[in-house]
Amino acid sequence: MADQTQGAIDALLGLLTRAIGDEARLLGGLPGNMQFIKDEMDSMNGFLMHLTKTESEHDDQIRAWMKQVREIAYLAEDCVERYVRDIAPHDGGGILDTLVFLFCHPNKYWLRHRLAKQILELKARVNDVGERRNRYGVKVPPGSELKKAEDRAAAEEEKRDAFRRALEQGIADFSRQSSQQDQAPGVMIYSSIRTAVRRLLPAAVPSFITKAIAQLPAHVRSQGAAVVRGTWKKCHPAANDEATFRCIEMLLCALYAYPFKGNNLELKRLSRKLSQEDEEAAGADEIKKQAMIFCYSLLSTNQKSCLQYLTAFQEETAISRTSLVRRWVAEGLVSNEPGRTLQEAGERYFSDLLFRGFIRRARIGDAGTVKSCEPLSGPISEFISSIAKADNFVVELPVHLDRQLQIRKIVKQPRPTHQAAAADYYRCWICCRKQDAEAVVDPMDDLAKFLTKLPALYRLNVLDLGGCKGLKPSHIATICTVVWLKYLCLRKTDVRRLPPRHMGKLKLLETLDIRETPRIHPRDVRRMTAADVSVVTVKIPARIAAMRNMETLSHVQVSDELLGGVAKLHRLKKLGVVIHQANNPTAQQLLAVVCKLAGSLRSLSIWVTQAGFLDISVLQEATPSLILENLDVNGRISSSLPSWVEMAGKLANISLRDTEMNGGETLRRLANVQSLRCLKLRRRSFIEQALIFRDVHFRALRFLIVDGDTITSVAFVADAAPKLEKIVWAISKVHSGELISGIDKLPKLEEIEIRGNFNVNSLLQAIGPRTEPPASTIRYRCRYVYLSDFNEITVVSKTKSDTATTLSLPAGVINQQQ
C-alpha cells in the first residue's frame, strides 16, 4: 500500500513545486499555505520511502494512515491542477491585476476564492494527519539492511527471455509426459492407486526445475533451491495442475530476478512454512498463497500499482500492450526513470510483470514481441483483487477501478440498430406502457449519464471507447466535460467530428487514439497543441508544427512542404509517412527530418505509393547520434538500402515490402547492422528468388520472416546466423521443392513455421506418422499453420539424430488460391 501512496505524493510534490515557483499567487496567504502543504508532504514522502523498503507486513494502523495521506495527496493535486489550468493564466498578482481579473473574469474570480478555501481546509487536514501519526505512534517497523542489485543491463534481457522460454517448455514437456503415462493402456484402472501413492511418497523434483535452479543468482541459489523443491514436494502437482505449475514458474522467475543481496524475510517465512512438522504443516493452497506473496513482495512500487490496475479489465478477452502502457502513464502509475521516457518505463513494467508470470501473453508477433496480454484470471486475479481491497479497506474493488470496470461494461453492451430500436419501442408502447418504451436506450446515452454523475472532484484520467458505434455530437460534448482526461481512445469508432470548441477543454490530454477512425478530419486535431497526440489519419494537419508535444504520427500523407513542420516536433518517436510523389525535394526533406530528429526518433515507416524511386541514401550529419530502432520500408527507395542503415547502432527491426532491391547487395548491408534482431522480407522485397546468408554475418539475428512468393529458397552457410531461433515462411501459391537449406548450420534454431493454404491430407501423408520424442532429443520443431485463420494443423519435432539439412514441400501440399 505504501507504494501507491508514495506514487500519489510524488506526483503532488512535482506539481506543487512548479505551482509555488511559478504561479502560486492566488491570494495573499495562499503561497504560504501551499508551501506548508509541500513541506508536510515532503516529510510524509520520506517516511513512506523508508516504509516501502521494509520487508515486514504493515499493520492496520500504518495502512490506515497511508490511506489518509493518499486521499489528501489526490485532493491537493486536484486543487493545484485546477488553479494552474483555469486561474494562473489570468492572474497577475497585484491589486490592479486583481481588479481587472474580477471585472473581466468574474466566474474565475469566485472559483479562485473557492480554491483558496479548499486549500486552507487541506492545510488543516494535512496538519491533522501529521499530528495523528505522532498521537498514535505510527512508526516505521525495523527492517534489515538490504542491498539492491545493480539494474540489469540490456545484455541480460536475452538471458531472461531464454530462461523463461526454457522453463515454459520444460513445464509443457513434463505435463505432456505425465499425462501420457496416466493415459497409457493398462494404467487407467490404477489411476486412483497412483494418485494415493503420489500423496504418500515424496514427489521427485523434475529435471526442468533442477536446470532452472542451476541458473539462479549465486546469492539466492541455495535458499531459493530449498524453497522451490519444498513447494514442489508439498503441492504434489498432477499433470493437469495448472495452478501449481504457474506457482513454481513464478517462484523461479522471482528468484532469477531477485533484486536484493542479503536475507529476505518473506523468503524466510516461506521456508518456515515448508519446514513445519506434519501436524502444523500448511496445506498446498496455503503454500501457493505464501509463494505468491513472496513474488508480489519483490515487485517495485509502481509495478504493484500497475498490476492492481489490471483488475479493471475483467470484461476484456485481451488487452493491447500499447494501450495498457499508455493508460498506466495517464493514470500516473509510472514514475520517471533516468534516461527513459514514461512510455519506455511503462514498457519495462510490462516486460517485468510478464517475465514474473503475473500476466500472460495473449497474442505474439512474428518477431516474438508480445502484442497483447490476457486479463487476470484464476488465483492471480483473486490474489490481486484481495490486495487492492485490503489496501483501501473495502469489500469491493476501489472506487477508481470499479468505475473503470463500469465504463467498460457499458461500452461492451451491444448497440441496437435503428430498426431494432424502433421495433422495440413500438412493441413496448403497444404491449406495455410508455415508461418501458423509454427504457430502450442507447448504451452511449448510459455512458453520457454516467459521466455527468461523476463527483466534481473525481479524477477520471482514462476513457477507452474503442470499438463503440453510434457516438453522437452530444456524446462527444459530454465526454469533453471530463476535463481531467489524459487518455481518450476513439479507435474503430464512427465519430464524424471532434469540434475544437469541445476538444479544447481537454487541456490535460496526453493521448488521443483515433486509429481506424477514418471520418475524422485533420483540422479537428490541429489545435490540440497541449496534447501528446497519437494520430493515425490520412492527411497531415497543416499546422503540425504547433503540436510540439506529439510523439506519434502514423500513416500520414506528406509533401515536401509539410515535412518541414514535422522536423520541429522534437518529441516525435514514431513517424510513418505515405508519399505519393517520389521526387528529390521530398526525399531531401525526409532526410532532413530524420537528421533533426535523430536524438528522439525510434521508429520510421516509409510507404512510397507510386512508381519511381525515393532516394534517401545520403544521410551523414546525424548518423552517429541516430537512435532509430525500427525501420519499415514499403515501396521502391533505391536498388539497395541506404548506407547509413549500417551505422544505426540500435536498429533492431527491419521490414521490407515491394522494395524490389538487389538481394545480394542488400543482404551485405543488412549483415553489417550489428544490432539487427528481426528481419521481415515481405512481398517483392528482392528481385532474386534465391537468397544466401553468408558466413560471419547477422551476428544478432533471431527472427527471419519471409512473406510472399517472390523468394523461393533460402540457404545458410556456416556461422551465417548463429543466434537465429525462428523462421516464419508464408506461402500463398502452389510451391514444391527445397525451401530452406543449411539448417544444420543454425545451432540455436528452435522453430520453423510454414503458413499456407494446405491440402491437409497431402500434408499429413508427406509428413508421415508423428510421435513426440523425449524433450532432450528434440533439435527443433516444424509447425504448419493455415494461412487464412492461423489455426495450427500439426507440429513435427525434428530430433538431434535427424541428419536432414533441408526443408522441402512436396508437390500438392499447397493449394492454389482462387
From TrEMBL:
Residues 313-373 form the Disease resistance protein winged helix domain. It holds the Pfam family Rx_N. InterPro entries: Disease_R_plants (IPR044974), LRR_dom_sf (IPR032675), LRR_R13L4/SHOC2-like (IPR055414), RX-like_CC (IPR038005), Rx_N (IPR041118), WH-like_DNA-bd_sf (IPR036388), WHD_DRP (IPR058922). One of its GO terms (molecular function) is nucleotide binding. It comes from the Eukaryota. Residues 8-90 form the Disease resistance N-terminal domain. One of its GO terms (biological process) is defense response. Keywords: Coiled coil, Leucine-rich repeat, Nucleotide-binding, Plant defense, Repeat. Residues 452-757 form the Disease resistance R13L4/SHOC-2-like LRR domain. Belongs to the disease resistance NB-LRR family. This is Rx N-terminal domain-containing protein. It comes from Urochloa decumbens.
